[in-house]
Amino acid sequence: MTSLAELEQRLPKHLAQWSRELHAASTVARLCPYLLAAVCDRESRGGLALKPPGPAGTGDFGHGRGLMQVDDRFHPGFLMASDSAGKHLWKLPAYNILYGALLLRANVDALKDVHLALAAYNAGVSKVRRAADAITMGGDAAKIMEQRRAAADALTSGGDYGRDVLRRRAQWAPAEAPLEC
Length: 181
Known about the structure:
This protein is mainly α. The chain has ten helices and three strands; from the N terminus they run ααααβββαααααα. It has helices at residues 4-10, 13-16, 19-29, 33-44, 76-80, 93-111, 114-123, 125-133, 141-154, 161-172; strands at 58-59, 64-65, 70-71. A three-stranded antiparallel sheet has the order 1-2-3. Strand 1 (58-59) and strand 2 (64-65) form a beta hairpin. Helix 7 packs parallel to helix 9 (141-154). It starts with a helix and ends in a 9-residue tail after the last helix.
């Protein structure tokens, strides 16, 4: 398991500030903290790409909320959750990152593949499942999985979500770090 100090040291500054939250969420969701950091980077550049910049900002034409850009159209309960003072929890880095991590964990459990789960984080589980399940022929199992991942990525913003998140993760994670913990 990656230590908090190691995570903080390896991540770029704009993500390292969220190391504590990423580390805690990775423990709960049983996912690599560098993978969660890579999703956060892709979604919001660690909050830098949001309006206003920071953990309480929005993106995706106002529909993506917070660091992990959870879409309010598909997660209304997430949007409405608040503390006793009435502050929306999605604006809190720990809650936002944990919610995003648990969404990704649910996708991994449903699709049995991290790359497909990443594509589903962006495009939705049913769309990714349909695209992946449509590919049944085309070589050995590894080749078919490669084609399924490409079909899933084609549904995402930029057509490369899973591939891009895994590329970002590879920049920071030690080579031996597993995707799931």
